[in-house]
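Molecular record:
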Amino acid sequence: MNGNTKQLKRERRHRRIRAKVNGTAERPRLSVFRSNRGIYAQLIDDEKSTTLVAASTTSVKDARMPKRASELAKAVGKALAERAKQKHITRVVFDRGGYLYAGAIRALAEGAREGGLSF
């Protein structure tokens, strides 16, 4: 197998992004991970290597939640923004994790912006 599988390409893009993007206590990194089952987001202070706030589809999902991935991702973004506000975090840097800025990733970013995060 050659080195051009979808996963390897994403990991290469992610490493390239992470070379330029890092989070601080004042402006943490909003890191996104997407799996087949859900989407996960967390605010990370890279200087201390700690997660400040996290949210995922498993933490926001209930019977009334929409089933579409993009709608769930938007709800995750809003939930993350609410939790960040409680810790007085308003500014972040967005790390899309090597994923294309479309679909669920874009919806999560828009949800976070609607919730009050700026990036």
